[in-house]
Each structure stands twice: as structure tokens, then as C-alpha cells.
Amino acid sequence: MKSALLTFTTAITLIVPVVAFAQQTSAPLTRAQVRSELIQIEHAGYNPAERDTSTYPADIQAAEARISSRNAARPGSDSGMGSETSGASQSGKHAAPAPASTHLFAHH
Questions:
Q1: 90 vs 2, 5, 85, 96, 97, CA distance in Å?
Q2: Residue 29: left if φ>0, alpha if ψ -120 to 50, beta else—which one?
Q3: Rounded Cα–Cα distance for residues 33 and 26 (Å)
Q4: Which of 20, 33, 48 is nearest to 82 (CA)?
Q5: DSSP letter assigned to residue 74
Q6: Phi/psi at 87 (5° precision)
Q7: Which of 53, 56, 75 is nearest to 64 (CA)?
Q8: pLDDT value at 1 more than 90
Q9: Spatial contact of 36 and 80, defined as CB atoms under 8 Å apart
Q10: In angstroms, rounded to a whole number, what is the distance separating the alpha carbons of residues 40 and 65?
Q11: Which of 31, 49, 58, 71 is surrounded by the most beta carbons within 10 Å?
Q12: Residue 55 DSSP class
């Protein structure tokens, strides 16, 4: 009986930290993400420099509603980071072969 209780207690003490760690799904925002969100809110019409405390909650909520309606209109752009990519890339240009006279081993 003691071994079963010890096994059960050991299993619980090993599982509880794993479950607690698994519940932490939201990572802290990076500086770039916060800056991007601020720029989006400013483009939506909110100006944090006005400092009108009487209309603060309504102003920022209206700007956030405009942003969410824009993002809903564009399917697949729910990350809020950067612009949409075209799906193709190009890295540099094709190098032309060197003439035979300037070849590295031409003198041998």
C-alpha cells in the first residue's frame, strides 16, 4: 500500500509542473511587435499625443475596431506583422562565367 501511495505521489509531483508550464501560452511581446501595433493604431486614427482623457477609451477602442475590420477584410493576414508576401523570392543575379583568358588556372 505504501509503494502505491509513493508511486501516485511521485507521479503527481512530476505531472503538476508540466501541466502548469503547458498553460503558459502567451509569450511576452517583443519591442518590434509593440511598435508595429502602435503604428497600426496611429494609422487607424488614434493619436496618443492628444492626451484627451475624457475620450481615451472610446478613441482607442474605435481605432482597434477599425484595425480588426481591416484584418477581417484581408483573409490570411491575422498575424498583424509586416506586409503580405507574394510567394516568390529572388536572391541575387546569375553570375556570368569568366572569360577563358582570366581563368584562375589558365597559366598551367
A1: 67, 63, 13, 17, 20
A2: beta
A3: 13
A4: 33
A5: S
A6: 95, 0
A7: 56
A8: no
A9: yes
A10: 12
A11: 71
A12: S
- What percentage of the chain exceeds 90 in pLDDT? 19
Dihedral angle computed from the Cα positions of residues 10, 11, 14 and 15, in that order, rounded to the nearest 10 degrees: -150
> From residue 88, how far is each of 50, 84, 85, 91, 105 by CA, in Å?
42, 12, 8, 10, 38
Could you tell me the maximum CA-CA distance found in the chain, to the nearest angstrom?
A: 89
Helix-strand-coil split of the chain, %, nearest 5? 50, 0, 50
Angle at 106 between CA 104 and CA 108, to 5 degrees: 110
Does 77 score more than 90 pLDDT?
Answer: no
| Mean pLDDT across 42-49 | 88
**Separation between Cα atoms, residue 22 and residue 13, nearest integer Å:** 15
31's grid cell:
519591442
Q: In 10 A of CB 87, how many CB atoms? A: 5
